[in-house]
Amino acid sequence: MVELDSRVLAYYEQGKEDSRLRDGVNRLEFWRTQDVLRRALPPAPACVLDVGGGSGVHAEWLAADGYETEVLDPVPLHVQQAARCTGVTARLGDARELPYEDGSYDAVLLMGPLYHLPDRADRIQVLTEARRVARPGGLVAAASISRYAALHDHWRTGGFAEPGVHDRMLRILTTGVLHQEHVFTTAYFHEPGELLAEFADAGLAGPVRHGLEGAAWLVGGMDGHLDDPGRRAMVLEALMATSTEPSLLGVSGHLLTVARA
User: Which residues contact 3 (CB under 8 A, 6 or more apart)?
Assistant: First the structure.
């Protein structure tokens, strides 16, 4: 197996990922990911490989929807957590070297690997491997973090004036690379336009980029809107209506790009 960055491993072994998408404004990312995937996936039962699937937060609902779901993740804790989800199998592995035969899955999801690979060659390798193990015409979907997410988040929380933040944000805007162990870990933040080129270089046809949270994650009091089923439905409907608008992609914290193998 390809060696995982020790800083990334140490961060995820803290166990924070299991609750990240279940609380607060991060629920937008979870529900919007569900929405985009449910529209793009082939009908169940189909075989879905969730690469970098973490604790199984998405694999769990995919299995409940009737999909044959396997999680592959490089973090031992995540594999243990995902294996406890009903209907989900899980194994240790790296997205850059998938231990599966060509055309093994109807859909391959990359819900985290692109976040933590600063080298473009590694990201292309991950996407190429996903295309390889997807059946011809199968779905490949990859999540990424927007180049502007860290800057916007500091504006949202008021942290932009803290010592060192300004210089760190300028470095991210220039390079896309984050090294900030006390908050996150080694990470890469994509320019929306980069995704089209990376998918093309991996041989993936017709990529469509979706902004998951749009500008909604920056709105004060959004947690309250999400707690109310009626208002939540309106927020999600509006986000889906503007999901692929190019001028809005960069404001979203996360993007989900879908293509066909």
Answer: none
pTM for the whole structure: 0.94
Residue 149: Cβ-neighbour burial (10 angstroms; 0-12, 13-18, 19+): buried
CA distance 123 to 117: 6
Is residue 210 within 8 A of residue 143, CB to CB? The reply is: no
Average pLDDT over residues 21-33: 94
Residue range 143-170, pLDDT digits in tens: 999 999 999 998 998 888 888 888 888 9
CA 258 – CA 245 distance, rounded (Å): 15
Q: List own/partner pairs for 113-117 with CB under 8 A and 24 or more apart.
A: 113/51, 113/52, 113/142, 114/142, 114/143, 114/144, 114/188, 114/190, 115/143, 115/144, 115/145, 115/187, 115/188, 116/5, 116/8, 116/185, 116/186, 116/187, 116/188, 117/188
Is 66 a residue whose pLDDT tops 90?
yes
> Could you give the CA distance from residue 206 to residue 40 in angstroms, rounded to a whole number?
13
| pLDDT-derived band at 182, boundaries 50, 70, 90 | low
